[in-house]
Amino acid sequence: MIDRAGAKQVLRRQRIELPSWAFGNSGTRFKVFAQAGVPRDPYEKIADAAQVHAFTGAAPTVALHIPWDRVDDYRQLVASATELGIGLGTINANVFQDDDYKLGSVTNPDPAVRRKAVRHLLDCVDVMDQTGSRDLKLWFADGTNYPGQDSIRARQDRLAEALSTVYERLSGGQRLILEYKLFEPAFYTTDVPDWGTSYAHCLQLGDRAKVCVDTGHHAPGTNIEFIVAFLLRADKLGAFDFNSRFYADDDLMVGAADPFQLFRILFEVVSAGGLDAGTEIAFMLDQCHNIEPKIPAQIRSVMNVQEATAKALLVDAEALAAAQSAGDVLGANAVLMDAYNTDVRPLLAELRVAQGLDPDPMAAYARSGYAQRIVADRVGGTQAGWNA
Ligand code: RM4
Ligand code: MN
Hints:
By secondary structure, the protein is of the alpha/beta class. 45% of the residues lie in helices and 11% in strands. It has 14 helices and 10 strands. Helix 1 (4-13) packs antiparallel against helix 9 (294-313) and helix 2 (42-56) packs across helix 9 (294-313). The longest helix is centred in the first third of the chain and has 21 residues, at 111-131.
């Protein structure tokens, strides 16, 4: 039986975390196009993120990137977020934008550079202590460009050593989330290129170490839902970085390039209980909006995740199980496709009205005048961006 009421309950508590960097200027390596009204500091990024939550009711936290979001007083940043109705989430470390890291950060052949990188990661845990963040997300640009450039095995040893130093520093409920990425900026070897490498390191570290699946970080044609199902079964799926790709790490809006893939991923999450109350899986967006306005792009992305989730929740689990155990290939596939082909927008609109929200977050944001206000107010100063 299809359980619409149950689906609504899950959707009501679904939480999607926003990336602070989505609100800053971004682009490709060819050009960054500045947009009027873009935040000039972390406080303004948080204010923009709060707008996304105000209109969707589903994005109550924003992730920070250190040092892009470095401030003198993190408790003050927490206070300002709280005042705007949101909280601070994952702390993303950044050991890829310093000249010292040309040959790598934690896997650099030079021990002094490795020490500097590890110090930054430990500083990020200090930030977590102040912000109350649960997760430290690590993505390394480390790798090599040429065969023979460095020892692949030695780099794995250095990585393991750095990770264990950071892991030892965690306390309470804090977690280390290790992200992988197939290639770029290194093109020959990447030190954490795939989920298996991340999984193996996390296994060695312990229970509080988990894998982050960034949907844009795979080779074309990779079956991401298989990876998700495997990691869920092993209790090693820590977080998603949602986005869309056509070719590489495009960082386009989640659900834009391949909504069917997003549905298939979320179906695996739903069937493994990954959206049950008390789940620790972090559902985050990791996106850049290079040519489209940023706040509505984040609103659209949250809605895309909600729509794919709603469809995944509408799969008739009993009918599917019956068809599967009867070996009814076409029947089982049809159950899944029925859910995917359901128009869930009316259900989500109903849910929003029940939550006291506008049924159409995009239109409501456009009417609010916030976009015009920030263009008028944010004059002078330096716009935030990734400084590539
Ligand atoms: C990386 C990776 C990280 C993100 C940075 C900005 O490619 O996806 O998650 O923090 O980009
Ligand atoms: Mn990512």
